[in-house]
Amino acid sequence: MEGVGGGKRRGDDGAEAAPRAIAEYLSRDLPYELSANDIYLTSGCVQAIEVMISVLAQPGSNILLPKPGFPLYESRTTFSNLEVRHFDLIPERGWEVDLEGVQAIADENTVAIVVINPSNPCGSVYSYDHLAKIAETARKLGLLIIADEVYDHLAFGNNPFIPIGVFGKTVPVITLGSISKRWLVPGWRLGWIATCDPNGILKEAKVNQSIENYINISTDPATFVQGAIPQIIANTKEDYFNKILDQLRNAADLCYDKIKDIKGITCPHKPEGSMFVMVKLDLSYLDGFHDDMDFCCRLAKEESVIVLPGSALGLKNWVRITFAIDIPSLVDAFERIKSFCQRHGKLET
Ligand SMILES: *Cc1c(COP(=O)(O)O)cnc(C)c1O
User: Fold this and answer.
1) What is the spatial distance between Cα 291 and Cα 281, in angstroms, rounded to a whole number?
2) 148 in ligand 1 pocket by Cβ < 6 Å?
């Protein structure tokens, strides 16, 4: 038993079973073994983000977030008075991290860099080489990596999913995850923080202790979901995952083809993971729109199609389309988007 008041979560075998099962699950893809002591259970990945941002927020510190990104990070960091600095993801390069940009904005007060892979909102899945470069850059700058891998294994393109924790010996990685996305049970509210740190740097720096202290003063996931975790991990059939991947792959292909066919919107990179695609608006063709917000509001009003304005994600005049819906609905939605864009397109001269 470690730490102050550490008796809440550990101790009896029942409470130990879920962290142990998650440690084994994550270790399958790592070149070293995680133990139950590396795992902290949270109420979904949302609470994992809350815990990590709260633990890292020190006066004067800053954190590096991707642009476009997942808006909860902005809200959390702002709430915790942690300064945010954004680095770009580059659409023409499969939404890879602009590593030079990262080096330009990091300084001695930077505590961590957040990497979301597979990406919400971009639908990208990073290659081994790119992950290695991110890890190397973080090592050089002395940054901890916060890896949001809530879409772990939801990769259906050329790049397989690789956890950036494979580079845990290069640089400490804290991996955030949950059963919400891969198992499609977002309401069950079970997530985790995993310290992927075979060199024990985080333990030394008392980061594990801070996480534990925070966890000890916040609420646990429901015990019956915790109790089910070992079975959920051991007994979900491959077939279940494969069907989801097939469906997402078909939906992603359909999105990409349909977008090519619509004047006024373009997709620079075919989605190969998660459930999202970023689409750029051509406001020189789409007539009379102020911006992405205006586009999304009018699309909702006129066609009852809901897409997310890119400005909510840090990228103005883009929109995010979620394709985790059935194919007929997706076809219908794209027909509506097409007629909307045609109706509002400038007349060719
Ligand atoms: C959905 C999502 C989360 C939150 O996951 P929950 O397990 O539902 O709390 C965190 N990060 C990203 C990038 C997400 O898309």
Assistant:
1) 9
2) yes
For residue 106, give Cα distances in angstroms to 83, 109, 144: 12, 8, 12
Q: Where, residue-wise, is CATH 3.90.1150.10 in the chain? A: 239-344
CATH of domain 239-344: 3.90.1150.10
Ligand 1 midpoint to CA 120 (Å): 9
For the segment 221-233, what is each residue's pLDDT rounded down to a tens digit?
A: 999 999 999 999 9
Q: Which residue has the higher pLDDT, 196 or 14?
A: 196
Cα–Cα distance list, 328 to 72, 254, 278, 324, 335 (Å): 31, 11, 21, 12, 11
The two beta strands, 110-116 and 39-42, are: unpaired
Alpha carbon distance 85, 67 (integer Å): 10
Q: From the CB of 44, is ligand 1 less than 6 Å away?
A: yes
CATH code linked to domain 13-235? 3.40.640.10
